[in-house]
Design goal:
By secondary structure, this protein is an alpha+beta fold. The chain is built from 15 helices and 17 strands.
Length: about 425
């Protein structure tokens, strides 16, 4: 058929040759046809999507949260009643509630590329002001995050990119003299990592100056000259308030504010931040964030009559702690687990709960900023789907608690702010 039709002319060409229509008339008819086709395509696209105000979605998420709480209550009642039919209904409601929750939260997901797009101008303007040549590359712009997380991560990312431009990337002349390309590169990437999103800011600059950081830490009394520190411990000093190694104060940096604010903002989002750096090669800052702030999978634990929830995404394992284990530690809060010494925090002491602990306690091992930390509790109840409730303005300054949730029987369980507890324990140790 192709062979037979290849010599045939278009109808427009035949009409022009016959003198029945002009060439311009055929051209305008083709343009009109294309316009009609494009308009029809747009109308179909508009008909397949719908705009909804963000406030309505927030109300829907709150209602789903309440439904999750009621479903937990139904499941608990069904397990107590031991009725086969009631258990079957409870399981069906649990399945439907889970699907409804996931669907509702997916509606609030937005691609992080909308935030990435704003940083190109920031890099261009700052590099021009500082006399540097910098190229920003992005990866994983299609990675989706909850709308509220995207809104709150913008300012911390701005500060991290400003740091890379000012402290990290060298001047074009300096880069050429050490054999690097004249233009520096900052790479901004995002990717899903389990129930979290991993955002990384990489630069190919000069890296962090370990000697300068150590000298400043010793000068401020944060470190001892006689104690050997790992790279991770050394880099953690840059997150202390007022810490700066800049020789002079500029419009961009040098005041010692910023990285501590970044750490607080990431902690408020229940995320974590780590720094890796090689002198002369570059620095990588990794930020791990939860997909959503509305509902979190948690591990429910108990101390006496008090209930607490630990975010399940950072919980690694649970092990027993006996009185003999405590005696062998000689008064130190450390446990020997799988060939590794793991420091632990007693939640009973952290929250000033009176009473004697049981003979055998439980240690919940969690990963916090790349390190393993244990949390000692009386008992581990199990996995719990947690709807986060704010504690209100009266309790917003309470250390170690990021919110609360309502259990199936109406009891309130506090959601443990693991990074804050670890920071508090580190401060006490330094003191």
């Amino acid at each position: 058929m192709d062979e037979a039709l290849k010599d045939k002319k278009f109808i427009g060409e035949i009409l022009v040759e016959k003198g029945l229509v002009s060439a311009s008339a055929v051209e305008s008819a083709l343009i009109e046809q294309n316009t009609i086709r494009e308009t029809a395509g747009k109308q179909e696209e508009a008909a397949s999507s719908i705009r909804v105000p963000a406030e309505r979605l927030d109300v829907l998420v709150n209602l789903v949260g309440e439904l999750v709480t009621v479903q937990a209550r139904l499941t608990q009642t069904a397990s107590t009643a031991n009725g086969a039919e009631l258990n079957a209904i409870a399981e069906e409601v649990e399945r439907l509630t889970g699907e409804l929750r996931d669907t509702t939260l997916n509606i609030r997901m937005l691609p992080i590329g909308t935030t990435f797009g704003r940083f190109k101008r920031l890099v261009r303007d700052l590099s021009r002001d500082l006399g540097k040549e910098i190229e920003l590359t992005t990866e994983g712009a299609e990675t989706e995050l909850d709308k509220t997380v995207i809104e709150k991560i913008n300012d911390p990312l701005v500060h991290l990119i400003r740091n890379s431009i000012d402290h990290g990337i060298e001047s074009p002349e300096e880069r050429v003299s050490i054999g690097k390309p004249r233009a520096g590169t900052i790479n901004l990437s995002a990717a899903h990592s389990g129930a979290n999103v991993l955002i990384q800011i990489r630069d190919d600059g000069k890296g962090l100056d370990k000697e300068a950081i150590l000298a400043k830490a010793i000068e401020r009394g944060l470190a001892s000259p006689s104690v050997e520190l790992t790279d991770k411990e050394l880099f953690s000093f840059i997150f202390h308030p007022g810490f700066s190694t800049a020789k002079e104060v500029t419009n961009v940096s040098g005041r010692g504010v910023g990285m501590d604010v970044v750490r607080r903002a990431i902690d408020a989002l229940r995320g974590s931040i780590t720094v890796q750096s090689e002198k002369g090669t570059g620095t990588t800052v990794s930020v791990t964030l939860p997909l959503t702030l509305a509902i979190v999978e948690g591990l429910l634990v108990a101390i006496k009559d008090n209930y607490f929830v630990l975010p399940l995404s950072i919980v690694e394992e649970c092990v027993e702690l006996t009185r003999e284990d405590v005696r062998e530690a000689h008064g130190k809060n450390v446990a020997y687990i799988r060939g590794e010494m793991v420091p632990y925090i007693r939640l009973r002491m952290a929250f000033s709960i009176s009473g004697e602990p049981p003979e055998i306690e439980q240690i919940v091992i969690a990963g916090c900023n790349g390190e393993r930390v244990g949390f000692v509790v009386d008992s581990v109840i199990g996995e719990h789907q947690t709807v986060i409730k704010n504690l209100g303005r009266l309790y917003r300054d309470v250390e170690g608690v990021s919110g609360a949730t309502i259990l199936g029987d109406g009891t309130v369980a506090l959601i443990v702010d693991i990074p804050k507890l670890v920071q508090g324990a580190e401060k006490e140790q330094h003191a």
